[in-house]
Amino acid sequence: MDHIREATDTIYVFMCDTEKDFFLLSGGKKSTDFNNLYLDKDKVSARLKMVTTFPMVYFLKDGKYVERRPYQRPTAESRKRMTTLTADKQYIDWGSFRQAEIQEEKVILTNTGTDTLYINAIESSCECTTVQWADPPVPPGECTTLIIHFRAEEKGEFERFIHVHCNVPESPIEISVKGKVQ
């Protein structure tokens, strides 16, 4: 997280429910330790469709907005090395369900390559779709599990997309979820 503190002309937006969540995410730092970080506990940026489920970085030039990208940890030399992975599913169909029901599905990513797999960011196409995962690097032959949740905002058919940014040639890996909300 030191690279965040040292950044200039950059604003980092982190969506966390509590300061404690940020403390765990940052490895023991408080949001007040950073002068260029906005901790969005009220999900304001999501309601304004400014961010996805992953922290976003807003780049400024001369104090004006230039672009935004998902937050990615700095890449060490080993992270530049490519590997391969398989996902046990890339299409999830929840069928019909009631609006009050939260849908959940697990997707297992297996590192089938010879180098360590690093997941740099996971984005979803809307705030109604969230993803939880363990962040540590995945050694060759090992797996990590993504837990995908969907909370319907309105009735009708839907299709949403999740993009997993990682050190594989075909990155980002796309996972689609669909269904019909009654």
TrEMBL record:
Coiled coil residues, start to end: none
Classification lineage: Bacteria, Pseudomonadati, Bacteroidota, Bacteroidia, Bacteroidales
Designated name of the protein: DUF1573 domain-containing protein
